[in-house]
Amino acid sequence: MKIIIRHIVILMTLLSMAIYIMWRSLFTLVSFRISIIGCIVSILLLVSEMLGVWNSFIFYIILWNPTKKLNVSMESLSKLPTVDIFCATYNEKLNILMKTLIMCTQINYPKELLNIYVCDDGNRDEDREL
Hints:
Elements: H1 2-27, H2 36-64, E1 83-89, H3 94-105, E2 114-120, H4 125-129
Parallel strand pairs: 1-2
C-alpha cells in the first residue's frame, strides 16, 4: 500500500510540475518588444526552473523503486574489513586534534584493522610530530 501511495504522490507531483512549466513558458515570459533585458532575465529564470524540475524528475526516478538495504551482521563476515579514519585539519589547535585522535584510537574495532590518517592542510610541523 505504501508503494502505491508513493507512486501516486510522485505522479501527481510530476504532473503539477509539468503544468507549471507549461504555464510558465506560455504565459509569463516577457516579450522582446516590451523589454530586451526583461526577456533575457525571464528566459534565464525559466531555464533555471526547468533545471530544478529536471533535478526533481531524476530524484523521483530514484525514489520510484528504491533499492533494499542489506543488513549484514559483523558475525556473518568471515573476515573483517579494514577501516580507515581520515582526520582533516587546517590549523586546528593541538589539544583539539589530540583529543580527536585519542577518541579515534578508542573505537571498538580490532587495532590491526584500523588505520588513522591525519590530513593537515596547514602543513605544520607540530601536526607532523603528533
